[in-house]
Amino acid sequence: MTGSAVLPYGPRVKWRLLIFAGVGLSLMASTAEAQPSRKTYRVGWLDSGPISAPDETAVRQALVGYHQDVTFEYRSANGHPERLGELATQLVRLKVDLVLAVGNDATQAAKQATETIPIVMLSADAVSTGAVSRLEQPGGNITGVTYSSAQLTRAWLKLLKELQPSLSRVAVLYNADLMSRTELANFEVAAGTEGTKVLPRAVPDVDALGALFAGALAERAEAVMVPGGPFTLLHHRRIIDLASRARVPTIYGYSEFADAGGLIAYGPSLPAMFRRAGAYIGRILSNTKPRDLPVEQPSRFELVINLKAAQALGLKVPESLVRRADRTVW
């Protein structure tokens, strides 16, 4: 016989094949039905200031390993803390799965709006402001990332004294938000121990900034401190421009200020804090309870010095300070 022979299936074999095929299809259908549909979680983003694309990118990068689909419901007060209560209530009415609260006022508004929806906060002084009772065991429905403004304000004053050893008068710009008021109070305590006079300057709105800088200089302020609250972040370019025109050394709370032309900045890394908040969101959406997640604190702060700004002020930055900087900017 040449070529290949084709052997026809007998009736019994055909029936067996049909049975096996039917069983296989049934198993496939059962498996498909057993697999749960992928859930999309809704996270309410409640922010005291503007919501920026880099902040959202940092949060989403941290969510990559948690296998959840997440959409955000955005609510921003844009520097008007009095709006946060209603915005938090809106998110609760939407029945979001979690609230990301950015800023102390946003955290307080979210806390007042719900005791059941998990809240991940980014704030300062979480214990002293009453957001949580303890960092190690926050309890309740709130956890997240915080930092100590008392620690920061002492460091700000020491850095200013390194730049100007004879420093005796410092103006502090602050807004009505809880973060700025807390940082001002801590700065006054730190300055009192150093024999430095603090000139508090409340900022009612952006139009008042020019007059505030002029007033600080009229009272012989030798330096200006600008904490990193939502208002100052929103108007940071305007503030940097005024400080440059006034030719007064100014220290800021976030590296974004020095990157944009400010003299010196010391504080927590905002991208790092948002990434940690994103990781907490992922863990909570994966069924970890907020009360089981200790509130995190930054392990280190960033020191950024803008040498071009120092040169424009005719200020010589000590070499020891330059060596300690995480980054220098030209």
What would you note in describing this structure?
This protein is an alpha/beta fold and 330 residues long. It has 13 helices and twelve strands. It folds into two domains: 131 residues, Response regulator (Rossmann fold), CATH 3.40.50; 150 residues, 3-Layer(aba) Sandwich (Rossmann fold). Strand 6, helix 6 and strand 7 form a beta-alpha-beta unit. Helix 2 packs across helix 11, helix 5 packs across helix 6 and helix 7 runs parallel beside helix 9. The longest helix has 24 residues. The radius of gyration is 28 Å and the shape is elongated.
Summary, kept brief:
This protein is an alpha/beta fold and 330 residues long. The chain has helices spanning 11-34, 53-63, 84-93, 104-113, 149-163, 178-194, 209-218, 230-234, 236-246, 255-259, 270-285, 307-312, 319-324, and strands at residues 40-47, 69-76, 98-102, 119-124, 142-147, 169-174, 197-202, 223-226, 250-252, 264-267, 302-306, 327-329. The protein has 2 domains: 40-147 and 270-292, Response regulator (Rossmann fold); 149-269 and 301-329, Response regulator (Rossmann fold, 3-Layer(aba) Sandwich), CATH 3.40.50.
Number of domains: 2
Mean pLDDT: 86
- Give Rg in angstroms: 28 Å
- Measured between the Cα atoms of the first and last residue, the distance is 89 Å
Strand elements, count: 12
> What's the overall geometry?
elongated
Under the CATH scheme, the architecture of the largest domain is 3-Layer(aba) Sandwich
Order of helices and strands: HEHEHEHEEHEHEHEHHEHEHEHHE
Q: Strand share of the residues?
A: 15-25%
Largest sheet: 7 strands, mixed
CATH topology of the largest domain: Rossmann fold
